C-alpha cells in the first residue's frame, strides 16, 4: 500500500495552470494511485455493504477549459456509473484528502435517502443530523461549508448508523 500514498507533488498537481498541463500530471501520477486505492478498498466496501462495489476513477472527460480542482475514485454498486447512486469517494484537493459517503444532485433517490439518514441518526441517539442545514454532499467541501450534521463528527454519525 506504500505506493498508494499521496505525496506533496500529488497535492501540487492542483496548482498547475492550464487544463492540458494539469490533466497530464493528473493522469500520470494521481490517477494510478486512485485506481490502486479503488482496487484495494472495493472488496472491503463490498463486504461491509453486502453489495458488490465497482471502482470509478474520475476522468474529467467533459472539461474543455477549466482544470479540475480535485479528483477522486468513487465506489458504487453499479459497474456503469456512480453519479445517480449513493456512493463512497476517496480523493484529494490541493490542501487535503477526503473520504466520504456522497449523494449528489444527479441522484433520483437523494430526497428519500436524506430522510432515511435523518431518521436513522435521530433514532440512534447519536444526534448527528439534529440540525441538517444542507444537502448530504456539497460540491465544494471546504471546512467552512460543512453542513451542521457533519460538524458533530463522522464517528458519532457512523456509530448512530450502525445501531
Automatic annotation (TrEMBL):
Q: Which residues form a coiled coil?
A: none
> Which protein are we looking at?
UPF0637 protein YktB
Q: Per its UniProt record, what SUPFAM superfamilies does this chain match?
A: YktB/PF0168-like
Q: Where is the composition biased (Polar residues)?
A: 151-163
Q: Where is this region: Disordered?
A: 133-163
